[in-house]
Amino acid sequence: MSRIVILSGSPSAQSGTDKVLRYAGEILQEDGVEVSFHSVRDFEAETLASANFKDARIGELVADIEAADGVIVGSPVYKASYTGILKAVLDLLPENILKNKVALPIMSGGSSGHVLAIDFTLKPLLGVLKGEVLQGVYVVDSQVDKTAVVPIRDAGLEERLRGQLAELVVAIGRREVRQTI
Question: How far apart are CA 130 and CA 127, in angstroms?
């Protein structure tokens, strides 16, 4: 069984980004994938501000990612990029934490005007951590209903999300085959 870690970079507890990421996790679980969810809200501000690499919660995140086959990292767009708090968390992870892992970036924003943020900010960051980075999914906030069980309002977005999740699982399978050869 494949294992995937989801990391939400949203500082808001009422986040559309979180809703989409949790929904993605549910889809994966229905397909037999083991999923663990982490949020930047799980970490104390002091841990991040002081760059405390030895924090127990950072250790738990590192252990989960090391044991995973893939990761999904999501963030709302803030000032044409991922959130600063997401960067602070990622800065505390080992340099090659995503080596031999497939990474799926997901970003959300108020309009399609920031669709390139995923390509110019989050994908390069995941690449620096040595992940095999997939195309990713950009979500416009108006496509998400935060109160619904199925939060995606747009059929095209639903199709893109499910397609990228399927690609994530297939890419993990390919990596597993290559590693056994």
Answer: 5
